[in-house]
Structure formats: structure tokens, C-alpha cells
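User: Could you go from structure to sequence for me? I need the amino acid at each position, not a summary. C-alpha cells:
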């Protein structure tokens, strides 16, 4: 997603986002996420502020039952473009704010949008709140069928303690 600083209107405007990016979530795992929504753009003399919330949608596997499902979450975007002549500086992220230095020309927002999507990915991927997961004994998906396994897990290290 490109933003042309030379043709950007002064004041407030809206930037429509409808992009798909590949995220490196784990080693060897390159999942795709689709970002959609509107970002507010505030163009002033010295800087441009781009921010808002985007809807992120991607396919993943549930950490409890191992079934594939569509993950929906909110990606928070906060970008500051400082209009100065230090265009050789690398973009950097300070907390959740992505900062670029560029006075003129076209700026690529893809790294900032990709990082916003990556930083807000839920740490625990669960298909639904009441997911029962898989049986630790037989491996059956407990959301689809009950198994006859004994669900009480007894740790033999506790046997020597008085009751």
C-alpha cells in the first residue's frame, strides 16, 4: 500500500485499506492475513499521522482441538511520517507507533501494516471460547464426540502426601 506525500491533501482524510499480507508467525509458517477498513490520515506541515483499527482475517489452527478455523481480530495501526530531509533513516517502531522520515515522494505503508497485524495476533488461537480440545489419552476431538477415557489425570508425584 503506497501513500503519495506530494499529492496528499492537507488536513484530515481517509485511506481505504483492503490488502492481504503474508505473516511469519512461526518457523516455516507463513500465514496470510487480510486487512480491511479505513485509516484516518492527518496531514500537517511537519508530519503525517496515519491511524485507526483494521479488521484482520486469516486462517489458522486451534491450539486446543487442532481444527482449522477463520481467525478474526482487530489490528491497531499507528504510523507517524515525519516530514524532514533525513530520508536515509530506517523506519523504526517505538512501542506500537511506526515512525518514518520522508519529506516528499511515495511511502510504502506495507511494513507498518504488516507489523500492526503481527503485533495484534492473539497469542492463543482458539476456535471458540468453549472449545473442549482433544483427549490427552486417545486424541479424539472432544467437541465432536465424547470418548470413554478416564479424564482424571493423577500425578504420581503427589501419592506420598497425606490427604
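Assistant: Here is the amino acid at each position, in order:
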Amino acid at each position: 500500500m503506497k501513500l503519495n506525500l506530494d499529492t496528499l491533501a492537507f488536513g484530515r482524510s481517509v485511506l481505504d485499506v483492503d490488502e492481504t499480507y503474508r505473516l511469519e508467525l512461526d518457523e516455516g509458517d507463513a500465514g496470510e492475513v487480510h486487512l480491511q477498513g479505513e485509516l484516518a490520515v492527518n496531514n500537517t506541515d511537519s508530519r503525517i499521522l496515519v491511524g485507526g483499527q483494521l479488521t484482520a482475517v486469516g486462517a489458522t489452527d486451534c491450539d486446543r482441538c487442532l481444527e482449522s478455523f477463520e481467525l478474526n481480530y482487530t489490528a491497531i495501526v499507528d504510523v507517524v511520517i515525519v516530514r524532514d530531509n533525513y530520508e536515509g533513516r530506517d523506519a523504526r517502531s517505538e512501542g506500537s507507533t511506526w515512525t518514518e522520515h520522508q519529506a516528499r515522494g511515495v511511502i510504502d505503508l506495507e511494513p507498518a501494516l504488516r507489523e500492526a497485524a503481527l503485533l495484534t495476533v492473539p497469542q492463543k488461537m482458539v476456535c471458540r471460547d468453549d472449545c473442549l480440545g482433544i483427549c490427552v489419552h486417545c486424541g479424539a476431538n472432544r467437541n465432536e464426540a465424547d470418548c470413554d477415557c478416564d479424564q482424571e489425570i493423577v500425578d504420581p508425584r503427589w501419592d506420598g502426601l497425606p490427604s
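One structural detail worth keeping in mind: The first strand starts at residue 2 and ends at 4.
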